[in-house]
Amino acid sequence: MSTPTIKTYATLNSQRVMRWRLFLEDFHPMFHYIKGANNAFADALSGLPCHDEGEEVSASRNKPYTNAADMSQQTSQTFSIIDEPELLQCYLNLPDVDHEHPFALDYATIAAKQLTDDRIQALLITKPQSYAPTPLSEGSPDVVCYHQSADKLRICIPDSMVEEVVRFYHAALVHPGRSRMLSSIQQHLENPKFEATVDRVVDSCEPCLCCKPPGKGYGHLPARNPITVPWYEIAVDLVGPWTMRNSDGNDHEFMALTIIDTVTNLCEIVPIRNKTAAHIGLLLENQWIARYPSPKKCMYDQGNEFLGAEFQTILQRNNIEPAPAATKNPQANSIVERLHQTIAGSLRLLSYAHPPRNEAEREDMVNTALQTASYAAKAAIHSTMKLSPGAIAFGRDMLLNIPVIADFEHLRNLKEALINKNLLRENRRRMSHDYQPRDVVYKLVFKPHKMEPRATGPYTITRAHTNGSVTMQLNADTTERINIRRIKPSKA
Ligand SMILES: [Zn+2]
Prior knowledge:
Radius of gyration: 34 Å
Low-confidence stretches: 1-6, 54-65, 68-77
Number of strands: 14
Oligomer: single chain
Bound molecules: zinc ion
Largest sheet: 5 strands, mixed
């Protein structure tokens, strides 16, 4: 704010001017004083004829309502929230009404436009038994209706009003889907163009595209080759929270970090103190990198604890390539799911037998439950590979002192078959769709909050790749290569 502005406002301090000031301050205006004699434009503005609000209100006070806009302008002796047009907007989601865009369902307007509509005028002549002017309410002109049966009639909407009516319904019913909107409209209104117009309005409505759940995925996912080298790729994830009850009846919540080698399926599970990127990174270093051959790639989902700078620094320091995933790695996910069950089971057992009496006992118990689950996951036979993850990783059975030699080529084939089976299942749920350059798409938001939009955009595709990803233009200078799991087309 510049000094002259403050001086101007210092002399004008009524409530109304203060409000103007609040509105204007958003734009950081600079004020300059121009003498009235030199300021012909401002003078001209004040000389223009305009409606005086007060006059109009008193004139309309005794008029009956003909449409919803009148209703909002009516005044009465007592104050009502519908007297304030801005407040009314908060409650009803009706489109704005003005001289050029009158209330869409006003009988008088419909009747007037029916007179100039060729289709309706022709129907009146060719099918007089079904189409006839019908009185609908007192004080309004007769409206041409389609008499479907003796007790069911539908108002004939002129072609010129179809778009307006559809947009009105879409706004008033708060962005319903295609079929719900069409049945709401066709309950009382008739026009053969409704179906096509509803399709067009719904398909091109930006709030709908951003906020509706994405539904089925579009575009089939391509096959991928499994990695066959152990200690090459790990998947990290957070699991929990679990709650544990102390002997004094207080509940304690805790979460854990899982680190899984995606080839051997060997896993480590570590209790965490908090979800900061620094803490999670430290645990990865201490609990995995310090123990096992260094991985080359690390997969993680879009959680802040993994995207955070501190976690990324630790990956960089260890020369590990970050691999942020669109969705969870299905294989690591099935291990995590099994871990979940084992952990919950052993926790229940432990806390039932000896409820922890203090903080130290509780911590021990949590650690025991987590490591029991981790051990079980290492020692149990994997259903596809017919070997336990521990045996593959260490070349020795986890329980008996017997050497085990893993045939990685055979494991690769088994894994490939499993991946293809899962892919087939996933693609069965997806719609066939070909993304092409210049297509418009929306980017799905990862784990959106309840009130958050489901997608952002629209963005234009600049390249479509064969491995199930596309490059899209985020803005003039930025492009993003993204998996088709994370986008949806603007028009199906
Ligand atoms: Zn919409």
